[in-house]
Amino acid sequence: MTVRVGVIGTGAIGREHISRVENVISGGRITAVTDVNEQSAQSAVRDFNLNAAIYPDDQALVADGNIDAVFITSWGPAHESSVLLAVEAGKYVFCEKPLATTAEGCLRIIEAEKKHGRRLVQVGFMRRYDEGYAQLKETLDQNEIGNVLMVRAAHRNAAVDESYKTNMAVTETLIHEIDALHWLIHDDYHSVKVDFPRKTKHAHAELQDPQVFTLKTKQGVLINVEVFVNCRYGYDIQCEVIGEEGIARLPEVPSVIVRKQSKASTNILNDWKLRFMDAYNKELQNFFDAIEAYGQPQGPSAWDGYIAAVTADACLKAQETGEEQDVLLGEKPEFYEQKLHV
Ligand SMILES: NC(=O)C1=CN([C@@H]2O[C@H](COP(=O)(O)OP(=O)(O)OC[C@H]3O[C@@H](n4cnc5c(N)ncnc54)[C@H](O)[C@@H]3O)[C@@H](O)[C@H]2O)C=CC1
Ligand SMILES: O=C1[C@@H](O)[C@H](O)[C@@H](O)[C@H](O)[C@H]1O
Prior knowledge:
It catalyses: 1D-chiro-inositol + NAD(+) = scyllo-inosine + NADH + H(+); myo-inositol + NAD(+) = scyllo-inosose + NADH + H(+). This protein is α/β, with parallel strands linked by helices and about 350 residues long.
């Protein structure tokens, strides 16, 4: 089966995903695109030599009877309405994070998907497909370091532009750790708080940078995540898990070690697209493979999108108030308990 895909939003990651469907992975084909900036949609068709219809908006694209799935790669605030349109039309959905900008929005999507009666939605939490995270998870699942006590993580970007505000440290950046870390240690968040250390001179006036988030889990694990988006030196993702019997670290990205002029040095990547390239490829391959094998996706679900949204809301409130906030999750619906494996 070839999954025929319509893409809503042909910006940076939309183009990345178009390219990987057309040139890298198997099982899918881009047959429709739309973007509020029509020129962007046209240039995607031209640049990737697509045999695809260009639609004026998401509604027209979703109504196309010749598409099976929709990739939602528009700006975050536009995601919810496009997901709802697609689910109501019975299309499979791959939606980049955030699934919706509020927990209530995620619940509306969950209700629509339950009404359809079968999972349709996968959220773009690609860390779960990264080889390093997979190895780290395997180490923890094998109980090699005993009970997990603490996690120390960092999400660093070299620089961001002026459109990136303090709250985006949560909604754009920390959101990946929010998803990956509870998945990694099989635990749920209980409360969150944030500290603002001395501000770097490289951050613009409306951005507090760096920020340090402390997330406590229901089992008492203390997770500390540094978000530092003007670190200057590169794109760097760190994660160290401290257990009762030992410590497990996310592997570094392989890089040749050069010994020269009394120094040993390795390269550090600068670009998130390269850091997680294999993970993006795997998540989309898995999306197509699961549709073929089971008639439904098996990757991060709308429920995972909801967990991230509730936790992100608590982090935003912690930013505003300076106080610790509880993470209040509803009961996981039976609908999302089913485990599939490709
Ligand atoms: N999983 C990951 O690692 C990443 C996820 N993202 C997420 O992907 C989404 C897109 O990010 P970027 O590609 O970096 O942004 P971008 O600004 O480069 O592209 C977004 C595109 O969507 C279009 N658009 C906005 N609203 C629309 C609507 N209602 N209908 C149709 N088109 C619309 C814009 O014109 C633009 O071309 C964001 O939610 C972002 O958080 C982005 C980068 C990496
Ligand atoms: O989602 C992403 C971007 O939006 C964000 O800007 C980066 O910091 C992330 O690491 C990347 O994965």
